Amino acid sequence: MQQRANTNNALLGLLSIAPMSGYDIRQLIPKSIGHFWNESYGQIYPALKRMTSSGLIEKKTQRTKGKPDRHEYSLTDAGRAQLQDWLKVPVAQRSVVRNELLLKLFFGAQVPPAISREHVEAALIDAERTLKVYTVTEKELRRTLPNDPQLPFWLITLSLGRHDSRAKIAWCKETLAVLGQMAATHRNEPVMKKTRKAK
Amino acid sequence: MQQRANTNNALLGLLSIAPMSGYDIRQLIPKSIGHFWNESYGQIYPALKRMTSSGLIEKKTQRTKGKPDRHEYSLTDAGRAQLQDWLKVPVAQRSVVRNELLLKLFFGAQVPPAISREHVEAALIDAERTLKVYTVTEKELRRTLPNDPQLPFWLITLSLGRHDSRAKIAWCKETLAVLGQMAATHRNEPVMKKTRKAK
DNA sequence: TTGGACATGTAACAAGTTACATGATTGT
DNA sequence: ACAATCATGTAACTTGTTACATGTCCAA
After folding, report:
1. DSSP line for B133-160
2. From the alpha carbon of A20, which nucleotide's C1' atom is closest?
């Protein structure tokens, strides 16, 4: 119910930007909250139906030729109030995230260091690409919506993305150096074999 | 099946450190991979049963008085091979994480900026606390396991935690300044009312 | 004597993804 | 002619958490 509430509130938030259909919402996500929140059709359509029943949103149906009817949802007063109530509740801390990269690195002693190096190299490339996306997105936003009252908040979320990306890039480079050093040692004294000087 | 595989592999990894019972594994997680990976009893016990059937691990039962029998699991050769195979597979990129803080900030225009400020202040306190935990953990590890071949890998995962925490702290401070500025403006020109100069 | 740690496990629930069903329209 | 996109929705499946059941030992 806790998480479910979040799905509802995320959708209310998106509908506060503009009235939309379920399809519109799904299309908007990658261009808005997609870097830190995702919802699939399998979540969106049932949630819209539930929230319509409970009066948080309302549906306007438009006939179209050929295509299915378009169902456009918009916030009701109750929906906007619910959104604002939720925004005021302190953020639930620490949803532990599953980070497969760190998991593999943590067990890196089980394989030659070159393996871990490859993982970090891939992560570095990915982080650099992501940083560029954030930078481009920021420019686009500033250009297209310079006076939107939501802009400062959208920039704030982008800024954390940039900080995180830069931190990850720095860590990747530092880690590649560490692993490079280990790989050099490893070539002389392979893991899982006893070293000459057992001491 | 993909994710399930990860649960199995995480458990194989932990058992590569030492043979353990399900209870031991659960206790070890907060002290090892807990900052980036979690498994509950509801996952662990069934997974151990499955992996015993499929020959990846083996169980030794020890009778105890009073307490339930202790089931200690250890990797088989097949289990270690499976772990190493998995470690060699490139990391599956981009499991989109749900970040409730960013979600609330993204919709911050719906409430007074002071609300968003409080969220960020809480995040700052949390990030500073977390950074300290990482720093202390690193010192403890260096002190207690100076010669463990796994140490460098454990330090690598801690280092990303430190980089991330510092980035988050910097972003919190920067964001508090932005929101503070907005709050000052907001007191003169409240949101949702028209400003005097519509221009 | 009461509560917490020890210890194993299951069942019920919650949440989320993917595949499927349907069918028109548009571009190659 | 074929694939992609538009558009809505459901069903099946996977994954994960929480609560419960059971019972001992130990410390305050």
Report:
1. HHHHHHHHHHHH-TT-TTHHHHHHHHHH
2. D7
Closest chain A CA to residue B190 = A149
Q: Smallest CA–CA separation between A62 and chain B, in Å?
A: 28
**How far is residue B115's CA from residue A88's CA, in Å, rounded to a whole number?**
6
Task: Answer whether B32 sits within 8 Å of A106, measured CB to CB.
Answer: yes
Residues 17-76 of B with CB under 7 A from strand D: 38-43, 65-68
Q: How far is A61 from chain B (nearest CA, A)?
A: 26
Residues of A whose CB is below 8 A from B32: 106
Q: Which two tokens stand for residue A53?
A: 């029943």
> Would you list the DSSP string of chain A?
-HHHHHHHHHHHHHHHHS-B-HHHHHHHGGGTTTTT----HHHHHHHHHHHHHTTSEEEEEE--SSSPPEEEEEE-HHHHHHHHHHHHSPPPP------HHHHHHHTGGGS-HHHHHHHHHHHHHHHHHHHHHHHHHHHHHHHH-TT-TTHHHHHHHHHHHHHHHHHHHHHHHHHHHHHHHHHHHHHHS-TTS--S---
Distance A159 CA to D11 C1' (A): 40
Q: Residue B163 CA to nucleotide D11 C1', Å? A: 44
| Contact across the interface for A163 and B168, Cβ inside 8 Å | yes
Question: Along the 199 residues of chain A, how does pLDDT read in single tens digits?
Answer: 455 678 999 999 999 999 999 999 999 999 999 999 999 999 999 999 999 999 999 999 877 666 677 899 999 999 999 999 999 999 987 677 789 999 999 999 999 999 999 999 999 999 999 999 999 999 999 999 999 999 999 999 999 999 999 999 999 999 999 999 987 887 776 655 444 544 3
**Gap between the Cα atoms of A27 and A13, Å rounded:** 15
